[in-house]
Specification:
Layout: E1 3-7, E2 10-13, E3 18-25, E4 31-39, E5 46-52, E6 57-59, E7 67-72, E8 77-82, E9 91-100, E10 104-108, E11 112-117
Parallel strand pairs: 2-11
Antiparallel strand pairs: 1-3, 3-8, 4-5, 4-9, 5-6, 7-8, 9-10, 9-11
């Protein structure tokens, strides 16, 4: 059984920082990317950041320069360092792993709430 568990969310004032963690248990084969998505109430889930199996990173324009994704392969954990947080960053943040070869499969965590007050 594969599980992705997010942690590190909470309430922070605008301009503050948080670091999210995503720990993976079980085995996922043929990993393509690991990343983070977020979803605000009444809105669609949107891409935030990702890192490929080769170490290349990608960011949404809205977070570029403020957020940093990283990974610790030995701990099977991916992180999202969030700096200079804004109220519009408020959302539930979800960890994602995309795996496969001919076809792909997405694994998701349960989400962690991030609330940024003005």
């Amino acid at each position: 059984q594969v599980q992705l568990v997010e942690s590190g969310g909470g309430l922070v004032q605008a301009g503050g920082s948080l670091r999210l963690s995503c720990a993976t248990s079980g085995s996922i084969f043929r990993v393509i990317t690991r990343g983070w998505y977020r979803q605000a109430p009444g809105k669609q889930r949107e891409f935030v950041a990702s890192v490929t199996s080769g170490g290349s990173t990608n960011y949404a324009d809205s977070v570029k320069g403020r957020f940093t994704i990283s990974r610790d392969n030995a701990k099977n954990t991916v992180y999202l360092q969030m700096n200079s947080l804004k109220p519009e960053d408020t959302a539930v943040y979800y960890c994602n792993t995309r795996a496969g070869l001919g076809s792909t499969r997405d694994y998701w965590g349960q989400g962690t709430q991030v609330t940024v007050s003005s």
